[in-house]
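lol ok so funny story. i was supposed to be doing the assay writeup but got distracted and ended up predicting the structure for this chain instead. priorities right. anyway since i did it might as well share w the group, maybe its usefull for someone
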Amino acid sequence: MPLPPSSRRSAISVQLMTQFGLDQGLTLEQCLAGTGLDWRLLGDPGAEVDTGQELELLRNLARHLGQHPGMGLQAGRRYRLNTYGIWGFALLSSATYRSAVQLGLRYLDLTYSFHSMRLEEQDNDACLILEEQDLPEDLCAFLLERDVSGALSVYRDLANTGLPVHRASFRIPEPTDVKPWRELLGVTPHFGASANCIIFPRSLLDLPLPGANPQVAQHCEEQCKTILARRRMRVGFAGRIRDLLLARPGQLPDMERLAQALYMTSRTLRRKLAAEGTSFRQLQEEVLGALAEELLSSTALRLEEIAERLGYGEVSNFIHAFKRWKGITPRQYRLEGQRPARDSRI
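and the output, tada:
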């Protein structure tokens, strides 16, 4: 579900960015300063880190190397499909690029992206939209560059060719040198736009992928679902807040009301959640997203009824939110859940 960055994520991204810093001439100490990360973690492929630790590492890179135009694009090229673990195998086994995109967006929290993403289609165009999720202002440009470059690397590994981009627009100010963007995309983007959007031919979505294997894709998706559920388990103060939100799903209290119920200020509540690598908004969306999935999968309720139960005044607002979380509409999610089960043994 494309929520704000998960508080826990694979350490592979930290490993990639540390190596990027070392290749630029930095020392290991410069890369990891203030992160609380031990260098021994870099050799453990199963290790996980907090989102805040990775952000601190990226700040170290920016501080020592400077955020010159294209640095994030260069870093993003290191995110090849095989660096994403089971998520990458799931995409590689998908039948078409469309099914790969849909699956990838459903489990976007298993990637290293700091943007949520969704796909929109209109006429002959498909548009991949990247949305900021409370990103630190000092790293916005770098993170956008890295996430765009990483997404295009995934496509290149899936299709064995570059994505033919028609147009692109980004919210960040125009950099002093647009050449790195033009080299990556094949077109000069429009900067200072209202949205981050990469437009490419819609017809590409239905082309078959060379590694298609339905059984492997199904097996990998089941593993993605298990890993994501484990990462979203909440403990400590964040777990307590999540439980309080779950107690009244149709009437989620706002932060002020919840802080009062806990005899603290909203500022204290925000600080305590930040210390655990999350936010009140992220917990709200986790709760709504989990409840929406459950209601769509296990009940025959109409979308209007589900929207009402989750506290949405208009079903259109619920559909828009769900599409932002999952990359597909509630109706598509329900239909996919009703597909005949396949033998997942491989």
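The chain is about 50% helix and 10% strand. The longest strand covers residues 115-122.
back to the writeup now i swear
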